[in-house]
Design brief:
The chain has 3 helices and 4 strands. With 81 residues, the chain is of the alpha+beta class. It has one domain: Glutaredoxin, CATH 3.40.30.10. The chain has a 4-stranded mixed β-sheet, covered by helices on one side. Strand 3 and strand 4 form a beta hairpin. The protein is globular. It starts with a strand and ends with a helix.
Length: 81
């Protein structure tokens, strides 16, 4: 199964929107969703603190800031090939 990781933080409007898109797309194209909340001092904090939300598909960078549902579906289809 495809793994989609959402790197986000609390009180992040763009993160909430990205998660909505991911959940909606998952209804049409199933995948495992793992949400990683970053906090100061975490492994990913310095790399992603100003770029979130960040989405990885099967450990590969896919999106930052905004997630397009159409582009997500295409990337998911490519990841399953």
């Amino acid at each position: 199964m495809i793994l989609v990781e959402l790197y986000s933080k609390d009180d992040c409007h763009l993160c909430d929107k990205a998660k909505e898109v991911l959940l909606r797309a998952r209804l049409r194209y199933p995948f495992e969703l793992k949400e990683v909340k970053i906090h100061e001092g975490d492994q990913w904090y310095e790399q992603y603190k100003e770029r979130i939300p960040v989405v990885h598909i099967n450990k590969n960078f896919a999106f930052q800031y905004r997630v397009s549902e159409q582009e997500l579906i295409i990337k998911l289809q490519n990841a399953s090939s």
